Amino acid sequence: MQEIGSAKLIEIYTTMVRIRAFEERALLEYRKGLPGFIHSSIGQEAVPAAVCAFLRADDYVLSTHRGHGHIIGKGARFDRMMAELFAKETGYCKGKGGSMHIAAIDRNILGATGVVGDGIPIATGVALGCKMRKLDRVVACFFGDGATSTGAFHEGVGLAAIWDLPVVFVCENNQYALSTPIKTYTKLKDLSDRAKSYGIPGVTVDGNDAMAVAEVARKAIENARQSRGPTLIIGNTYRYYGHSAGDPGTAYRTKEEVEKWKKLDPIRRLRGELLQKKILTEPELEAIVTNTEKELDEAVKFAADSPQPNIEEALKDIYYIAEGK
Amino acid sequence: MREITIREALQEALREEMRRDATVFIMGEDVAEFGGVYKITLGLVSEFGPERVRNTPLAECAIVGAALGAALVGMRPIAEIMYSDFSPIAMEQIFNQVAKIRYMTGGMVKVPLVIRMPAGGGMSAGPHHSQTWEALYAHIPGLKVVMPSTPYDAKGLLKSSIRDDNPVIFIETKKLYGQKGMVPEEEYLVPLGKAKVRREGSDVTIVAVGRMINRALVVAETLEKEEISAEVIDPRTLIPLDEDAIVNSVRKTGRMLIVHEACKTGGFGAEIAARIADKAFDSLDAPIKRLGTLDCPIPFNPRLEDYVIPNEHDIWAAALELMGREFKEYSGERAVEAAAR
User: Fold this and answer.
1) CB pairs under 8 A between A and B
2) pLDDT, tens digit (0-9, with 9 covering 90-100), for A224-243
3) All domains of chain B in start order, with CATH
4) pLDDT tens-digit series, residues B92-116
5) Where are the strands (E) in B120-174, listed by range?
6) What is the ipTM, given to two decimal places?
């Protein structure tokens, strides 16, 4: 097995730190009074960070309602993300999407969906378009364990499989579909068993072990790029907070369970590896956090200072209207 | 000009657009060698190959979702849903993704996607193969809804729909697939959003869609014998709607009847009626009348089916009532309809 290089590990670590810091800040701002819903993925950072580390700039990402991590992993800017959360005209979607629908087309982030599972058949189609246009691009489609119960998952993965499309299906299994524990909604002990029914590889990995996810992701992305078809990756992980900002997450989970997972924290684990392997020093690790916080300060200021969209924006972008019409 | 069927007109539109633009492709159930259950895509796979005429599994959600995905990266997919009755399986994608993704991304993407679906009854196909749902799609902002009734319009509107950078729900009336009409040899387009006055008249405006147009036209001939002059308008596209054409007609006639094959409650006729009440109330000499399929599933029994879907007798009676005439039995022809198989 090929080692994951130091530079890649630093990149993954930095992305994880950035995801967590962004979400902690977003939650803080949310409590001060941002509109709408916000779903944090804190605790789950290893999967998006490690998968995105092996995507090229022109590869595509489809995300979910719990999607900040995927978007940050693919290189979206903090300021425009934060502005979208603030519902400002400088946001990625001009304030019309919000946390649940951030897309950054200039980074080939094709958007997030508020309806669980919907991105899966779309990702299949993006991969189909790439294949038909001979674009040499790969699609990473993220979703949660809850999505594996949907018809969209079954139909979308099945279609990608029969056409050998360049897509990687990445499931962050955080053990709950909102409040419903996985063992109550599926008989499967291992969600990657579902891949068998589509005739594609399915791999389950410790989703809190960034290096393990990186190994699996690299291989799956490479397979997709070499026209060997899709892979289903299940990363077992956990969200520390509730389903959304309004849910403390205590009605269906014990304190002990949350604490058990926190001991497996993906950021602390990779940090330990980086120190042990002498890839980074304590001050260097600290600098990543400091730089991220500084960038977030600027992003929040940018978002807060940005103007509200004009009221006319409500009726724009419904249809594409050609120039001069 | 030559006379061809709507089925042939649709085939020509698909073939011409696929020749013109290599990004146009078709995906759906049994669309390749089999040519689709109504044979609209017949022969295309031999010219364009299985890459561009793609048979899919029985998975409408994936057909539409994947077509959307391909559209986002520069393709121009045409998704065929075997029967419009099966489109609810894909409705989640259509309502929440296809219609909204441009808006949700702040206008950063275009969705050049056509979703074709045969609709309508008259074939004893029963409750799951006979429905007409243009009103459902017209209700969702972000979609365009097209519903042709002649070979000329079918070809010109399908070509325009394929070239449109917005998602188009293209509703084909099964019972009209075999209908003939004159179509030019040379290329032409019919723009979306322009109604067609199919018959000029001065006493009553009849707005009809799909196969109701033919019924309205034959009734109009019989009304003429009663010295009632009916104007018959085919909106051709419901979204965008050529509201001016309808308003102007009602300003002239002072009376309006709307006929569609979709169920009456919540049908698109209600929308047209409301707009006329809003825009041309002062021109009305009588209350607006609507005819739609009675609010029931489409029955299998041919006699029951004919009873629940608006027919010539219903249109006749409604027109007489609008004109304040005594009721008398309809003595005219029934419209000739020719399904494709």
Assistant:
1) 148
2) 999 999 999 999 999 999 99
3) 2-183 (3.40.50.970), 196-322 (3.40.50.920)
4) 999 999 999 999 999 999 999 999 9
5) 144-146, 168-173
6) 0.96
